[in-house]
Design goal:
The chain is α/β, with parallel strands linked by helices and 224 residues long. It has one domain: TIM Barrel. The strands form two sheets. The protein has a seven-stranded mixed beta sheet. A two-stranded antiparallel ribbon has the order 8-9. Bound molecules: iron/sulfur cluster.
């Protein structure tokens, strides 16, 4: 099934990102999430009418360019990617094809979803959408369950390799703990993007530090 004519509703596309998966990666943040986890730092991605439509073919072209620039993987986050299962399937199928065409079968495809494992197991649509994902990180964000597990926001979230490449690449990280959080800052024309998973209190501390230096946000994505 090749569906590069599909469009995906996205919040952001940025690269290289370095804090959501191993190495330098293309990051695609899907727009729209009905799960409304308390403490979500990405509330701007909730409204499915927000963001913009981007063609899967266009995203595949960015991925191809990323591979030419030496990227190590693609991370799809959100928002909730499985709210758009057909477009997600098309994106991952295209990304898989591009990596093979580029002679880079070593680069991986990682998907974050707020869906729980049991919800995924009960959904043939989700299984189809994730066919080409090498690994998924599953589960709602639970603000009351902080964690030091790499690339996860709360202790309940599970990193699950799905392919031999996924096992090779993510196996060493399944229970790996990080001493500190890693946040990447990217400034674009209209926003400052904090990429990664902060620990409890870190965003408020950052706001206070910036305010002390005279920098305040007009709005931010982690407050109602
Ligand atoms: S943490 Fe993820 S799954 Fe939860 S509300 Fe935010 S975007 Fe949705």
């Amino acid at each position: 099934m090749e569906l590069t004519g599909e469009t995906l509703r996205v919040s952001d596309v940025l690269g290289p990102i370095t804090t959501l998966g191993p190495g330098r990666r293309l990051g695609v943040w899907v727009q729209g999430c009905p799960l409304a986890c308390a403490g979500c730092m990405s509330r701007h991605t909730w409204d499915p009418r927000g963001g913009r439509d981007v063609g899967v073919g266009q995203l595949a072209a960015l991925w191809r360019q990323g591979l030419a620039d030496g990227y190590d993987g693609l991370t799809v986050s959100g928002g909730e990617p499985l709210e758009q299962p057909r477009a997600l399937a098309a994106l991952l199928a295209a990304a898989d094809r591009v990596r093979r065409e580029a002679g880079r079968p070593d680069v991986d495809l990682l998907v974050y979803t707020g869906r729980e494992d049991a919800e995924l197991a009960a959904s043939p649509q989700a299984a189809a959408a994730l066919t080409h994902a090498d690994a998924v990180i599953t589960g709602r964000y639970r603000v009351g369950e902080p964690t030091r597990l790499v690339w996860r926001g709360s202790a309940n979230q599970r990193l699950a390799p799905r392919t031999p490449l996924g096992h090779r690449r993510y196996g060493p990280h399944l229970t790996r703990l990080a001493d500190r959080s890693e946040l990447q800052v990217r400034v674009t024309a209209d926003a400052v993007h904090l990429i990664g998973i902060p620990r409890p209190g870190e965003l408020s501390a950052l706001e206070r530090d910036l305010a002390a230096r005279g920098v305040t946000f007009q709005e931010n994505s982690w407050r109602p």
